Amino acid sequence: MYKKISLLTGSILLAFSAGAQAQTKWDLPSAYPASNFHVENLTTFIKDVDSLSQGKLKITLHNNASLYKAPEIKRAVQGNQAQIGEILLTNFANEDPVYELDGLPFLATGYDASFKLYQAQKPFLEKKLASQGMTLLYAVAWPPQGIFANKDIKQISDMKGLKWRAYSPVTAKIAELVGAQPVTVQQAELAQALATGVIDSYMSSASTGYDTKTYEYIKKFYDTQAWLPKNAIIVNKKAFDALDPATQEALKKAGAQAEERGWKLSQEKNKWYQAELAKNGMETIAPTVELKEGLSVIGKRMLDDWLKKAGADGQAMIDAYKKQ
């Protein structure tokens, strides 16, 4: 009788162990609040992964920088502390020129151009991430970037002396070139920085303006459409390789769906965000010819500097982009 019970208990434990092994749990850190369209897209992506993998891969979302701050997420994924994560590519421009490309002002200013730039950039991005032990799952563009400031800005010289939020090497470089004072502030701390006067201006999308309630402190948004930076979803390669082939395919399929959905969502939400800013008293202003020309000069200078750093790979990306 004792042997029968032991055998039965052993069988139950073995079955439970097999079931536990069959389900994999991953953490996904993101720096953005639940209201952000990237996070909305991630939430759907996670549900799709669960469904397509038949419950074998469970991903827990940690949004609003609750697990890691924006600059820490890439390293966390690289070290497998988080198996998957969302990063803003331009945050890592100092690591390699490939991460900087979609932050160069006026290189690709609309969604169509931005998607073409992504296609040119993608093979080089995948190669770089692979060398760091990671895989690119998908990427989605932010809406076009404009300038938030209370000051009248009709030309570049009007930006001199602004206390400018710098959240990436690219935005810090722009501050340097226009004579603004760069202050490093990540999105999770942006509202507080505005409320306390640490900054009085920044360059980002209408999405960021809405998410952070910038309209409570700033009443002007200059719609320069300077560039469309991308968020990328990256995966630790060892964690990916540990999945069974069917679950790998489920993850890739959910990623492809999220990329297609995300680009459409970005365009749709951009109009909605601008309407919401207007409802809350923010004026959207078309840039003057002088301001656009000044910003274009900065863009050309930054592209020239980037090509010097990026070498043959950089030229290949630009050539591929221009051929499309």
UniProtKB/TrEMBL annotation:
It holds the Pfam family DctP. SUPFAM superfamilies: Periplasmic binding protein-like II. It comes from the Bacteria. Keywords: Signal. InterPro entries: DctP_fam, TRAP_DctP_sf. CDD domains: PBP2_TRAP_BpDctp6_7 (cd13602). Residues 1-22 form the signal peptide. The keyword Signal applies. The keyword Signal applies. GO terms for biological process: transmembrane transport. This is Extracellular solute-binding protein, family 7 family protein 1.
